[in-house]
Amino acid sequence: MTRFLKDSPELLEKLAQVDIVYTDLDGTLLGRGGTLLIDGEGNPDFNTAATVVAANKAGLPIVPVTGRSCAQLTEITRMCGWTDYIAEAGAIRSYFDGKERTFMFDIPEWNSELKRQLITKTPIEIIREHGVVERLMEAFPGCIEYHTPWDVHRDATEVLRGFLNRQAALELLDEIDLPLSLIDNGVIHPRLHTLKASDEPIRAYHLTPAGVSKRRAIALDLEYRGIDPSRAIMIGDAPSDMLCAEVVSVSILVENALRSPGIDKRIDNIENTAIVEGFAGDGWSRVINEVLSNF
Q1: Strand arrangement, sheet containing 85-87
Q2: Which residues, 6 or more positions from 74, have their beta carbon under 8 angstroms from its beta carbon?
Q3: β-bridge mates for residue 105, sequence order
Q4: Residue 89 — pLDDT band, cuts 50, 70, 90?
Q5: Is 153:69 a contact under the CB 8 Å cutoff?
Q6: Cα Rg for the chain, rounded, in angstroms?
Q7: How far apart are CA 215 and CA 283, in angstroms?
Q8: Which of 32, 74, 134, 216 is deepest in the core (most CB within 10 A)?
């Protein structure tokens, strides 16, 4: 049986002790098409935006943790009234002090030779020099493509979409002389794509330097801020968000996360993870309002 937040008094109690919220964006805070001003069903609505305002008024820190690029996140955080973010699936942390924005790369498993190259190149330039995406497309024809328009202006990771045998894809990556990972970011519903017809759901993938993850970035951010993990939560909609339960008090997935096959069973195996009723921003708002009731 799927664990729902409303039926988990021990998790609800932890929401009364929150000092910071980490959140995914697409499919979590943002609804269809990456839109804020709609409800979970895609109808025009300002409830989620009103919850953002309420959190800002209360002084509740909210940090986006997402696969989006720094260029996109700098604008999103500015419009939401926030300052900091974690970009590109955890590869980059960015902080704004009111005057200047700083960026911190985390590429933990590349060797010293590769890291020396980072003095003059970005991680994504090195990945592209190795032709990694082209090799995936050749090995899985019609099954993978760039996740446009979110694939532009990136510094550390590639964002792709399609339906892959992930184990086979990882075996292919092992043949490349560059430590890489392929992160499954859940089921998506692109309006346009060039993928071949399939009964498999289309998923978003992040091709990252090995060791990069949202949970690692959150752990580093909490250490940087001096906040105990027991005072932090994560809200998301994908397996990579659920795994952040390792470094926060509670990891909560909005209801549309259940569209990913098998995720309900995975949730049941992690004690501090639950589903909140409500799709995308509707579920997100429920969690934030629960936090605010005790903040």
Answers
A1: 85-87, 92-96, 101-105
A2: 85, 94, 101
A3: 92
A4: very high
A5: yes
A6: 19
A7: 21
A8: 216
- Using a 10 angstrom Cβ sphere, with 0-12 exposed, 13-18 middle and 19 or more buried, the burial of residue 206 is buried
State the pTM of this model.
0.93
CA distances from residue 100 to 3, 83, 84, 103 in whole angstroms, order as listed: 42, 11, 11, 10
Q: Helix 166-174 vs helix 132-139: angle between axes, to the nearest 10 degrees?
A: 130
The rounded distance, in Å, linking the Cα atoms of 40 and 53 is 18
